[in-house]
Amino acid sequence: MVEGNVIQDVKSVLTYLQETRQIKQAKLYKDVRAGYLRRQKDGTFKRSDVDRYAASLKPIALPERETDDLSALAKQEQEERVLKLREQREALAYDRKVKEGKYILREDISLELAGRAMALSVGLRSALQIAAQELVQAAGGDKNRADDLVREIEKHLDEALNEFSRPMTFAVAIEHEEHVED
């Protein structure tokens, strides 16, 4: 019989312990005689002493419902780990493709376009400078006015490039590749 913090006798201790621990009557009596579980002078046992002794004993099997809950929880944790590993693997594959130049990061698209526009501008200007005399001749004009022709062409070119350099909204299509694992 358990009353508050006191358990009356060895049989009550045995009943109390068997609710949560694997123990036989012979072992309990042997441990009480060996002093592993202290009996008070009046023959009772302190609940705290019994609980401390119980910690050294093997617990009984969990009920079926609790094991089902634990296995469901373990399964869910395993699925989450697999999902996390799959996402990490996909991120590594994407990073590798970016490094290989197969993809351009969204943040780098503006820089890439600006760099290409600058290269286009420099290339067009030098081509015009080289071809200025030929353009003047083709137009039947004076070769001494080649600089005026270049300035006029550059003016039109600047307008076109300024239009190109304004912020634009554009769509980038992303195609997901499906790959089958062997």
Low-confidence stretches: none
How many β strands by DSSP? 3
The shape, in one word, is rod-shaped
Q: Order of strands across the widest beta sheet?
A: 1-2-3
Task: Name the beta content range.
Answer: under 5%
Q: What's the helical proportion of residues? A: 55-70%
The largest sheet, given as strand count, sense and whether it forms a barrel, is:
3 strands, antiparallel
Radius of gyration: 43 Å
Count of folded domains: 3
Question: Helical stretch count?
Answer: 6
Instruction: Give the overall pLDDT as a whole number.
Output: 79
What pattern of helices and strands is seen along the backbone?
Answer: EEHHEHHHH
C-alpha termini separation: 66 Å
What is the structural class? mainly alpha
Describe the overall structure.
The protein has 182 residues and is mainly α. It has three domains: 2-54, no CATH class; 62-103; 105-165. The chain contains six helices and three strands. It has helices at 10-18, 25-34, 47-54, 64-99, 106-138, 146-165, and strands at 2-3, 6-7, 45-46. The chain has a three-stranded antiparallel sheet with strand order 1-2-3. Strand 1 (2-3) and strand 2 (6-7) form a beta hairpin. Helix 5 runs antiparallel to helix 6 (146-165). The longest helix is centred in the middle third of the chain and has 36 residues, at 64-99.
